[in-house]
Design the sequence.
């Protein structure tokens, strides 16, 4: 746990827990939305809704993260009057969604038409074919893409400034401000004390470690499935 | 069960195709085809590449319309019911008219058993119990002559099977739901001779139980497995006749030119 700035020592357990919670919220929201949008884009090319969804995804993808943050602040922080882990998680989800959408669309398109036809020929509805055959076949690739997206948002700082805010104390509530590794690093790094700088570096190492673990997991997910399914 | 070698008049027509035309966009692929496929017989469709064999076959279970821009006109009566009539669901139709494609297409995320059982889950009347499913899976795998090769690894991924085994798995998958008609589109085109032999033997076995329509490029194959053969050219049906007669004494000069290898 952190000591008041300027004191010696201190840790970052609250920031680690905070980042895990924020990323967890982002996954819970971003994964279903991103996968759903990507599946829709791949399956219903050319409809006006698909065009709209793609446009939104592209806009979201191109949005600077600080802008994502201010939107989350406007709609999720100001109305309730206080910063919250939920607002931070939603901001991170907004960053994650376009990445997951794009991966899902690409992976679903890679599923051979022959599989889709095989399912339809068995009397599957389009809807059932999409979910139980196409999406399941594409899932390994989607998981990999999602993990890469998670690794990226885990280090995002800008969207959290005025949403999750940061917290000197351990908090696990979604309704309160929460600590996060990138915020903690920032706070320590801008402080004038050498001991705080050391903590900033330590935080950076932990964050890199976290991202590394996720990236390695992504690689393994890819190899385990594709190495086997390669036909 | 009717005798298998009964005279044509003794068997019912399973599929009666009446003046069927099919398009991709503005381009016609099948032009005014009328043809009947008799119950519990193997019928072959032959013809040069691009003449519309696959398209005709795919009109029979309404797979043609899954292609965007595709269009169909005409009637296809399945035991007297027009499958293109209003209120006929293509989904329900396909549960009675199974299809096997040129390239083996097992579902890669499913086990061998689950592949065979895949059609049962969407069959009318709800999914069968686990024990019942096991029984149906075994029967379908035995009918497709695959049981002995896979009985010890039913839970393994279907991807681990050879191409020929995968194709027989797809046949088992199509048979598991007990379709009245089985459509096969060049089912042995990607298989080695031994696997081809197995699939042909299997079709021969099936002829007393299911109505089979098989598209093939291989005239020897048509001669071996079918009792009647249809010859198509440029989207049209040139003639349909008992296989032996079509290959020895075709009525149309174009058929003769094709089977003697002068074109196509
Ligand atoms: N998806 C498609 N979109 C547009 N045109 C198509 C499509 N599939 C087939 N066609 C065209 O329709 C015609 C008939 O094709 P079809 O696949 O039925 O022929 P085929 O007799 O099965 O040929 P093959 O023996 O090569 O399989 C061809 O001219 C082909 O180019
Ligand atoms: Mg074809």
Sequence:
């Amino acid at each position: 746990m952190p000591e008041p700035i300027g004191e010696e020592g201190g840790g970052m357990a609250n920031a680690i827990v905070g980042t895990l919670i924020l990323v967890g919220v982002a996954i819970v929201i971003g994964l279903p939305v991103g996968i759903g949008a990507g599946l829709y884009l791949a399956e219903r090319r050319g409809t006006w809704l698909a065009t709209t969804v793609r446009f939104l995804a592209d806009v979201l993808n191109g949005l600077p993260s600080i802008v994502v943050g201010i939107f989350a602040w406007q709609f999720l922080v100001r109305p309730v009057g206080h910063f919250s882990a939920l607002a931070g998680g939603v901001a991170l989800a907004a960053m994650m969604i376009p990445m997951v959408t794009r991966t899902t669309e690409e992976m679903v398109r890679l599923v051979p038409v022959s599989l889709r036809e095989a399912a339809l020929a068995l009397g599957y509805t389009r809807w059932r074919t999409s979910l139980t055959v196409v999406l399941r076949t594409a899932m390994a690739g989607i998981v990999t893409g999602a993990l890469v997206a998670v690794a990226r948002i885990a280090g995002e700082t800008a969207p959290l400034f005025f949403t999750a805010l940061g917290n000197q104390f351990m908090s696990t509530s979604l309704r309160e401000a929460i600590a996060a590794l990138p915020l903690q690093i920032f706070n320590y790094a801008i402080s004038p004390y050498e001991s705080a700088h050391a903590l900033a570096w330590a935080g950076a190492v932990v964050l890199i470690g976290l991202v590394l673990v996720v990236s390695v997991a992504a690689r393994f997910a890819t190899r385990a499935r594709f190495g086997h399914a390669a036909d | 069960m009717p005798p298998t070698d009964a005279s044509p008049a003794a068997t019912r027509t399973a599929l009666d195709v009446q003046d069927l035309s099919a398009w991709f966009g503005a381009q016609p692929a099948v032009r005014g085809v009328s043809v009947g496929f008799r119950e519990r017989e193997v019928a072959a469709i032959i013809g040069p590449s691009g003449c519309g064999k696959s398209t005709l076959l795919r009109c029979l279970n309404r797979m043609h319309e899954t292609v965007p821009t595709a269009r169909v006109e005409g009637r296809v009566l399945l035991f007297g019911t027009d499958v293109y009539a209003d209120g006929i669901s293509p989904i329900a139709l396909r549960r009675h008219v199974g299809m096997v494609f040129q390239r083996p297409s097992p579902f890669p995320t499913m086990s061998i058993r689950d592949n065979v059982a895949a059609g049962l889950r969407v069959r009318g009347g709800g999914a069968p119990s686990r024990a019942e499913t096991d029984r149906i899976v075994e029967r379908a795998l035995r009918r497709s002559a695959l049981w002995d090769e896979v009985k010890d690894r039913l839970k393994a991924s279907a991807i681990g099977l050879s191409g020929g085994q995968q194709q027989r798995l797809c046949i088992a998958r199509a048979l598991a739901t007990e379709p009245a008609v089985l459509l096969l589109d060049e089912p042995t085109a990607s298989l080695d001779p031994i696997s081809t032999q197995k699939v042909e033997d299997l079709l021969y076995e099936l002829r007393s139980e299911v109505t089979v329509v098989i598209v093939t490029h291989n005239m020897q194959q048509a001669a071996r497995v079918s009792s009647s053969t249809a010859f198509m050219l440029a989207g049209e049906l040139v003639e349909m006749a008992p296989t032996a007669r079509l290959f020895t004494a075709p009525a149309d000069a174009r058929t003769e030119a094709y089977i003697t290898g002068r074109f196509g």
